[in-house]
Please model this.
Amino acid sequence: MDATFSSLPSAPPQPPLPPPSQASLSATFSHSRMAAPANFPPNPCEPKPHSPVAWSTGLCHCCNNISICCLTCWCPCITFGRIAEMVDRGLTSCRVSGAIYLAILSLTGCSCLYSYFYRSRMRGQFLLEESPCSDCCTHCLCEQCALCQEYRELQHQGFDMSFGWHGNVERQRRIANAAQPMPPSTVQGMIR
Model:
């Protein structure tokens, strides 16, 4: 039987196929889209565009929280440190972020160049609109007002800023555990 298979001629090796061109790929995909019925459900894997939402308070609504307004006016490094800890999700502590902010403020006077970065990150996390102007301009022109607005927004999102990131995570864990129903207790052993 081995002799039968060995006497068959072998097929010549086929050269590898060239990769498809960009034009042929786009034609294939456009044809497949046109062939789909009109009521075909959207692809759940496609990213959906999100429109930015407005801030919970305006930039000049500093009097909504007088204690934070006063703290930010006299010691903006504390306010910034708390904001940075929440935005970084606990990777940097309030003390470290506040110390960096204070060092930049003391050495250059341009702490806004450091703090606007966190405003941009915060807007990305909560899908907030960039208003009234760009993040850099907002911090350069109204540093204290911007910090107060960011602080109020984080409070509006449900954070207790005095606890820090890890304290808020622990608080959420306790709330989740309290919301879970306790299983019914069972009596072990025989009762007469």
Remarks:
- DSSP finds nine helices and no strands in the chain.
